[in-house]
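Exercise 3.2. Students should predict the tertiary structure of the chain below and write it as structure tokens, then compare their answer with the key that follows.

Predict this chain's 3D structure.
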Amino acid sequence: MSDSKPKFTAYMGDTPPQFANRSEEECARILDYYGLPWMYEPRTFVLERDQEGNVVEAFTPDFYLPEQDLFVELTTMKQAHVTKKNMKIRKIKERFPEINIKLFYKRDFLKLAQKYDIHAEGEHQSR
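Answer key:
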């Protein structure tokens, strides 16, 4: 029997991705299915520093789609807990206006999961 580790054909990273949850892996499978080149967590955005210059707040979006020049954050958290992530996305847009970023909510992923017969499991770990 062969290795059960998935091989992603459109993945552009140097090392295999270490997904935080099953939903991220399933999203990667959808990107691969359509042949959309993608990177997993390639950049961290510093959102706030203290007076000494230490990072106080940062955010690392889940995916980057280079052909679309788009960062994608997937959240399968309960909608009531998404406020903090929305605030970070808003800060990225304010501090880095040249960055294109989109937040996909649980309902968006569930629609994709239903369309592609994917079983969405697990909640997104907070970062």
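Discussion points: Residues 26-115 form a domain with the Endonuclease; Chain A fold (CATH 3.40.960). The mean pLDDT is 83.
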